[in-house]
Amino acid sequence: MTSNSFCEFFEGTEKLMEIWFDKYQDNPNDCDLRHIQRSAWDTLLSFVNCKIISFKRNEHMDAYVLSESSLFVSKNRIIIKTCGSTTLLRCLEPLLYLVKQVAGFDEVVDIFYSRKNFMRPELQDGSHRTFENEVEALDNLFEDGAAYCMGRMNSDCWYLYTLNSPLIESKSFKQTPDQTFEIIMQNLDHKVMNIFTRAVSSSGKEATQKSGIDKLLPGMTIDDFLFDPCGYSMNGLIKGGYYVTIHITPEPHCSYVSFETNCPHTAYPDLVNRLLKVFIPGKFLMTICANELSTSFNAHKEFRDVEFQGFDRKELQVCRFKNYDITYGLYAKPNS
Amino acid sequence: MTSNSFCEFFEGTEKLMEIWFDKYQDNPNDCDLRHIQRSAWDTLLSFVNCKIISFKRNEHMDAYVLSESSLFVSKNRIIIKTCGSTTLLRCLEPLLYLVKQVAGFDEVVDIFYSRKNFMRPELQDGSHRTFENEVEALDNLFEDGAAYCMGRMNSDCWYLYTLNSPLIESKSFKQTPDQTFEIIMQNLDHKVMNIFTRAVSSSGKEATQKSGIDKLLPGMTIDDFLFDPCGYSMNGLIKGGYYVTIHITPEPHCSYVSFETNCPHTAYPDLVNRLLKVFIPGKFLMTICANELSTSFNAHKEFRDVEFQGFDRKELQVCRFKNYDITYGLYAKPNS
């Protein structure tokens, strides 16, 4: 710890779960995950050990800022991302029940549960301490789930659990273009991180503007929150059904920033460069998950020869799954 | 088990270790791993729990058939592959010592330790029961070793440990074109497997010819061995410093065939098709490891759109490492 250290250790590393739903037999037009009431989410999130602290919506999506990260609810897709020592998988079974009872969907079309390796796994609840434990819990709920590890199992890596089975032969489910870009940055610049403390910024809005987050992508409706004494969360909604979410743990000994969006890009390296300029990390891990209909489907080709100034490429991996291609990259400054 | 079952369970799944050596300070011209005497290998292999049962050599390589798989010794590279419940990693420390004392090399340039997931890990010695255990042992001997898992961690997968660091700045080490192709086949045709039993074939040579192994690649000098009552091993040497090795566990309830070669190919799918025709597996896992100088460096592109008749592609992954690209594919018949 340095003289800058203002908090105890915090595990910024999020558990991220995205689930797509469908109705197997009937027309799913009447089904909608947004029929689930706020009070039901409150109850559900009590299993996870986190709370709703802010809310915004547009015609496509309900976006909740949580005490630990974010929740996005669309008609047929839920994205829930929680950090710290939350117990995300504990909400899965009640969530599936709630979705069936209230939203009307009876089929999980696809699930993506992912996370980076924890900095301090020993501080997690048993259900999340190892990926093996998480896989066991997921295997109990899903048939033919596939568990992957990209990157180095004995160092920086990224775990993914997904169904990776052919899309269920449903009368109604139509695949639409879909892509998710996530970047996880660590060992960040102290001055930048200080922006995300109450000592330097008085509000989420001030931190958003001072850091330049508001200019990262055009057209965002922003819901930002600055925690006391430090920490920052932001949900951004963009027309067309797109979201952005940023979560920041600024403590110098465990600094962590995640940025995630489903906004399609045809030039991801440009976006990466903008993010590196704003946050100045010592290392970063990047994943792009895109289906065949996405304009980002061939994103991995862009990264094959690209270099990021000052960073060594430690790893580049591409997986072809049934419905998605995933690109994984790890980059680090020589002394990071 | 079927009426065809003639033996107890045998773990065909091999542990495979390839190590490249160099001399850090001086000219390595006088160094040669083939200075290591047969008696020293005998002692070393006692740590592994296997024995030499046959030997052939050419100007490039010494090739040993072992009671459990094979050992290839070139001037600056050792390849050792052992199956069953052998304890391969137990020979590593004494091997490094022996190499220094007898062959004169003092530097490990690169190491590749790999294996498929075991069918029955609980039957392995503690040192090999989990990949985590293996990684721990390797991490104790090497700095900056990288551990990977390709494929599904909760099903069929392939583990790899390698240094993945920039080539050591050695005065002498020159990278040469290098590629390794390995295919691991399971759930094989019973009639084909019967060829590799004493009940059907009287010798290794007969099994080699009956099966068509002798025609798989041109120009092989073959050293083959048929075990009693069943099981088959083969080393092939090809001019130019190339090897082939095939190991067969024919028991119907645990049938397993591995084929490995460093022979460069520009059309791997053709080779795969020849192998599928000879062995008729229900599923197969394939890896290609090639450096930038290899004509096989872009092999992964060949597999992007290729299909193998009767097989579903379960997985295709590509990793770019510092010095090597690795392509991983898993294919299975619908009911296998």
UniProtKB/TrEMBL annotation, chains A, B:
What are its cofactors? pyruvate
Pathway recorded for this protein: Amine and polyamine biosynthesis; S-adenosylmethioninamine biosynthesis; S-adenosylmethioninamine from S-adenosyl-L-methionine: step 1/1
Lyase recorded as keyword = yes
Gene3D superfamilies documented for this protein: S-adenosylmethionine decarboxylase
Q: Which InterPro entries match?
A: AdoMetDC-like, S-AdoMet_decarboxylase_euk, S-AdoMet_deCO2ase_core, S-AdoMet_deCO2ase_CS
Q: Where is this site: Cleavage (non-hydrolytic)?
A: E68, S69
Keyword annotations from UniProtKB, A to Z: Autocatalytic cleavage, Decarboxylase, Lyase, Polyamine biosynthesis, Pyruvate, S-adenosyl-L-methionine, Schiff base, Spermidine biosynthesis, Zymogen
Cellular component (GO) terms are: cytosol
Q: Which SUPFAM superfamilies match?
A: S-adenosylmethionine decarboxylase
- Pfam families in the record, alphabetically? SAM_decarbox
Q: How would you classify this enzyme at the top EC level? A: lyase
The positions annotated for binding substrate are: F10, E68, F227, E251
Protein's UniProt keywords contain RNA-binding: no
The protein's GO terms of the molecular function aspect are: adenosylmethionine decarboxylase activity
Annotated coiled-coil segments of the chain: none
Q: How is the cofactor bound?
A: Binds 1 pyruvoyl group covalently per subunit.
Per the similarity annotation, which family is this? Belongs to the eukaryotic AdoMetDC family.
Q: How is this protein named in the record?
A: S-adenosylmethionine decarboxylase proenzyme
From what organism does this protein derive?
Oppiella nova
